[in-house]
Amino acid sequence: MTDRRPLPEDLNSFPKLLARNATKFANRPAYREKEFGIWQSWTWSEARDEIHALASGFIGIGVQPGDHIAIAGRNRPYFYWAMIAAQVVGAIPVPVYQDAVADEMAYVFDHCGARFAVVQDQEQVDKLLEVKDRIPALEQIVYLDPRGLRKYDHSTLHNYRDLQAKGRETLAESKAEIERRAAALGPGDTAVMLYTSGTTGRPKGVVLSNENVLITARNTCEFDKLTERESILAYLPMAWVGDYVFSMAQAMWAGFCVNCPESPDTMQKDLQEIGATYFFAPPRFFEGLLTSVMIRMEDASKTKRAMFKKYIDHAKRIGPDLLDGKPVSGGDKMKYRIGQALVYGPLLNALGLSKVRVGYTAGEAIGPEIFEFYRALGINLKQLYGQTEACVFITQQPDGEVRADTVGVPSPEVEIRIGDNGEVFYRSPGTFQTYYKNPESTADTKDAEGWVATGDAGFFEEGTGHLRIIDRAKDVGKLNNGSMVAPKYVENKLKFFPDILEAVVFGHERDYCTAFINIDLTAVGNWAERNNIAYASYQELAAHPKVYGSIQEHVEEVNRSIAEDERLFDCQIRRFLVLHKELDADDGEMTRTRKVRRRIIEEKYAPLLTAFYDGSDDVYIETEVTYEDGRKGSIKATLEIRDAEVFALTAQKVAAQ
Question: Contact 454/426 with Cβ under 8 angstroms?
Answer without folding.
Answer: yes
